[in-house]
User: What shape does this take?
Amino acid sequence: MVMPMCTTGKDDMFEASPWNFTKYSEECHRKYNVYPRPDGAGVEYGGDRLHAASNIVFSNGLLDPWAGGGILNSISKSVTAVVIIDAAHHLDLMPSTPHDPQSVIAARNIHKQNIDKWIREFRQERKNRQ
Assistant: This one.
């Protein structure tokens, strides 16, 4: 699975290391005797072909190096993406602190609204079946 990792040396604490798929591919072949498929994760896990799914929120902090492999666009009304520009890995799922950025507070509110909506819809469907 290809998960691009790069650093600028300016906006992070690491030495500059730009993303180079060719170099990455050759290194994989040298180590594991396989060439990676850039679209492998999407093919294996369905990518954005989740139209039959429901009640999922994909939450992505763009400061997270894994965000490049995330679902960044909503698929349907019940399979949505929440993109948090100034957060990283799972910050919106951690306990709140006074230092939380507004974007994380907003993301948490979206999560709460979705969960509340799903519970109400479930209860209504259950009531309708009785």
